[in-house]
Amino acid sequence: MTVLEQGTITIHTENIFPIIKKSLYTDHEVFLRELVSNAVDAIAKLKMVARTGEYSGDISNPQITIAIDKDAKTLSVSDTGIGLTADEVKKYINQVAFSSAEEFIQKYQATDGEAIIGHFGLGFYSSFMVAKQVEIDTLSYKEGAEAVHWTCDGSPEFKLEDSARTTRGTTITLTLMDDELEYLETSRIQQLIKTYCDFMPVPIIMDGETINRHTAPWRESPNNLTKEDYLDLYRYLYPFQEEPLLWVHLNTDYPFIVNGILYFPKLRPDVDVTQGNIKLFCNQVFVSDHCEEIIPKFLMPLRGVIDSTDIPLNISRSALQTNRTVRKIADYIAKKVGDRLKELYRDNRQEYIRCWQDVGTFIKFGSLNDDKFKKQVEEILIFRSTYKPPTESGEAQTPEVQVQSEDGDVWEEVKTEKSLSTDEQGRYYTTLSEYLERNQSRHENRVFYCTDEAAQATYIELHKSQGLEVLFLDSFIDTHFISFLEREHSEVKFLRVDSELDETLIEKDKPAEIVDPKTNKTRSEQIKELFEKSLNKPRVNIRTESLKSEDTPPAMVLLPEAMRRLQDMTALLQQQKADFPEDHILLVNTAHPLIQNLANLSQGSIIQEGGSSPSEELAKMICHHVYDLALMAQKGFDAEGMKDFVERSNHVLTRLTERAM
Ligand SMILES: Nc1ncnc2c1ncn2[C@@H]1O[C@H](COP(=O)(O)OP(=O)(O)OP(=O)(O)O)[C@@H](O)[C@H]1O
């Protein structure tokens, strides 16, 4: 072997080697990513020179091969790329590579040890973190080029010799340091390739097998991808997870390059929105699992890939957050996500509604956190409603109708086209402005809502029976969201169905009540007094009203909106479940026959002299019972309450059967 040159690499930072060797990267493993990236670049460059006609050799079957020699303690990375001439080795390795390493280290030191997102682009040099000797064996594609062999033991001294190599391309061989021998394990190398190089666009071969996926769907045009392709990638990146609801393909070249696919997963109530799940890539090379600094906070629940060469990766994470390009990229991503949702709302409402349970939480979260996003999505915010849209004939809609077929008198069943705004169970979804407009004449700027369909069923029914439309605001984010909506629409007030009864539910045209000359009280006043005495709960405010609907219960517990919200907020701050407030309203429905009977019963008892008569006792017991039943519609009983309730129920029934005999 002829020594072509022996020399000293010119570097300005004296201590570059110890820094590289020691601890520039906490993760020494990234050296492999750097070497494979260089190999991929070399193959891409060859393709380019072939395209310009500068090279007419065979460029088919490009590949990168990784080989381990345990005895020699070497790891090598070979490519079928462009190769290097002796002059290029001197220029690119001795000068460019070393000076770019120098530059990198200066930048790195300037960050004051703060975490850097990718430790990206140190390049060829990073081999010295794990190797005591690095060799380059290379043959350039250029006509008449001679193969060369470069050796360096990590000191600034290098040796350049001629080589017996006959195939175009480059082999980098590392003789590993004694404490870096883990890189002689096939499984370790496979794992590193899976992590960093899985989507690099060239097959990587080890022991005769391709060990990377080598296609990155996000770099393809969306037109070339099927639904299955998108789902495939998701399953690959997030195995054993439920299928995503929808996805957004990012694809822009100007004013910055961003490619990627973001998926909306099904959200769980316990989702940690501060922990990102989006993977950051740079030119198909994996950089990080965390890109909180790049993605707007509200997009954190999304999953998938963002690939951009315009995100600076060698600055500290905090500098990244304030970087202008990064901010612009974040805005772009948010806008694309909003556009995708709007498109779905416009083009496939049924699908939008199907995904709403999860996507809705996300949209609400986004609206709360990002003003621009809020503006983008405010028109597509929907709410499940009790509203039933009339059919053309004005009747309630039925999913199926019978029609007579044209060729005879056979009746057949055909499905009517379902309303665009209903889900599979026929439940209707509306926007807030549609709600307000529809109900303007009956209750302008007031929105009735419920937070728990089962617990508030009585109240919902009461509203429905009077034709009042109720919205379901029952996701975990809705407490905040209601306040947010009220700030946004200052004229609109949200009232939970159990907070206050709307005037429309109360009988106003009833005749004036007669005052009983014996007691000097109206019947309503007597009923109120009866309940007050029987319950003896000063913090429960007893109110009497005559309710309109026939199906209304004898009594209801109401929790005034402002008070309940305060209670909810306190519970939220203390991170505990809200206790049922002791201060509440018991609304007694004087129109109900049970209350009428109760009044008669207690009146009968007043006639009796002194002590408490059996009728008075019974009336008292029934008052308790009516109250308990009303409470039950609001909350479950605790053990003590349940015991009392069962005991009293038995007691009341016994008394009633005694009376009936
Ligand atoms: N496998 C290879 N085949 C051909 N040329 C190579 C190879 N590896 C490195 N080089 C040459 O050496 C130069 C320096 O490599 P190095 O990895 O240090 O930096 P880089 O690839 O230019 O940039 P980066 O810092 O992003 O990796 C490259 O620009 C390239 O010209």
Automatic annotation (TrEMBL):
SUPFAM superfamilies: ATPase domain of HSP90 chaperone/DNA topoisomerase II/histidine kinase (SSF55874), HSP90 C-terminal domain (SSF110942), Ribosomal protein S5 domain 2-like (SSF54211). GO terms for molecular function: ATP binding; ATP hydrolysis activity; ATP-dependent protein folding chaperone; unfolded protein binding. ATP binds at residues 34, 38, 79, 170, 317. Residues 27-180 form the Histidine kinase/HSP90-like ATPase domain. Keywords: ATP-binding, Chaperone, Cytoplasm, Nucleotide-binding. InterPro entries: HATPase_C_sf, HATPase_dom, Heat_shock_protein_90_CS, HSP90_C, Hsp90_fam, Hsp90_N, Ribosomal_Su5_D2-typ_SF. Transmembrane segments: none annotated. Pfam families: HATPase_c_3 (PF13589), HSP90 (PF00183). The keyword DNA-binding does not apply. The keyword Chaperone applies. Belongs to the heat shock protein 90 family. NCBIfam families: PRK05218.1 (NF003555). This is ATP-binding region ATPase domain protein. It comes from Limnospira maxima CS-328. The lineage of its organism: Bacteria, Bacillati, Cyanobacteriota, Cyanophyceae, Oscillatoriophycideae.
